[in-house]
Automatic annotation (TrEMBL), chain A:
The lineage of its organism: Bacteria, Bacillati, Actinomycetota, Actinomycetes, Kitasatosporales. Gene3D superfamilies: 3.10.450.50. InterPro entries: NTF2-like_dom_sf (IPR032710), SnoaL-like (IPR037401). This is Nuclear transport factor 2 family protein. Signal peptide: none annotated. It comes from Streptomyces sedi.
Automatic annotation (TrEMBL), chain B:
Transmembrane segments: none annotated. Residues 26-126 form the DUF4440 domain. Pfam families: DUF4440. It comes from Streptomyces sedi. InterPro entries: DUF4440, NTF2-like_dom_sf. This is Nuclear transport factor 2 family protein. It comes from the Bacteria.
Length: 125, 141
């Protein structure tokens, strides 16, 4: 169990680095082909619509810190509950968003965990 | 919401199907049956149930379901969200469970985050359940 927690903490750190790099392709490698992302509550996006939205979002140079709150890891499927804060630079004070994400990951045949469902506002508190 | 709790399913080889309403109906039927082994057959070998407040899998999960469901708790779950991404789905429900304890009935209300997986045989089964109680106490606490 503790090995799983370490694995998922490392995954989260790598994802945050990819997100904060601002490079969309680097971040997109963390998603499965069929992934669903719900970056705006009530608006699940998949495929090209998901990619277009996330690419556009990264152009605002958001910086994220994420902390693993809970993890449930089976042989090839995981559920993560994650506290996160994102700051987006503006002309004045940075815009700040925060939430509790609910993420489902799948382990690929290549041994890499990827997001199948990414729901940043998945839990209210 | 009207539930069809007579939804037919193969009790020897259950499939929660790709229909989120049928999933919920089969799940409630199996839970309310009081049969731990039947309910546990909705899970994969490596699936994790956090129902007890601990992450249980395999034999420990079956033992918990056997003991808990024998007390004949009754659940009612309402689907609130679902997302399907290939062979995995994230489902959220709000639930009410009426427990029959030695001290009488007690009600637990909360929400549950479930992950389902479609296996290589095409059947959808539970991979992870994570109930969170908002009022009342879960069975083991």
């Amino acid at each position: 169990m503790s090995d799983h927690v370490e694995t998922m903490k490392k995954h989260l750190a790598r994802y945050a680095d990819a997100f904060n790099s601002g490079d969309f392709e680097t971040m997109d490698a963390f998603y499965t082909e069929e992934a669903v992302a719900v970056w705006e509550p009530g608006k699940p996006l998949t495929g090209q619509a998901r990619r277009d939205f996330q690419r556009e979002y990264l152009r605002r140079e958001p910086k994220m810190t994420a902390t693993l709150r809970e993890s449930f890891v089976t042989d090839d499927t995981a559920l993560l509950i994650v506290d996160w804060v994102i700051e987006i630079p503006t002309d004045g004070a940075p815009e700040r968003e925060q939430g509790v994400g609910v993420d489902v990951l799948r382990l690929g045949d290549d041994g890499v965990w990827r997001y199948a469902v990414d729901e940043p506002f998945g839990q209210e508190s | 919401m009207i539930y069809n709790l007579e939804t037919d399913f193969d009790r020897s080889n259950p499939d929660l199907t790709d229909d989120q309403y049928i999933q919920n109906e089969i799940f409630m039927q199996a839970f309310n049956s009081g049969e731990g082994a039947l309910f546990d057959s909705l899970y994969r070998e490596d699936s994790i149930s956090n129902f007890s407040g601990k992450q249980l899998t395999g034999e420990a999960r079956l033992a918990f379901f056997n003991e808990y469901l024998a007390t004949k708790p009754v659940s009612l779950a309402t689907l609130t969200k679902w997302y399907v991404a290939g062979d995995v789905a994230l489902i959220k429900v709000e639930y009410i469970i009426d427990n029959q304890g030695p001290d009488g009935r007690s009600r637990v209300e909360g929400y549950c985050t479930d992950v389902l997986r479609r296996g290589e045989d095409g059947r959808w089964l539970m991979a992870i359940d994570r109930p969170v109680a908002t009022t009342g106490r879960p069975p083991s606490q």
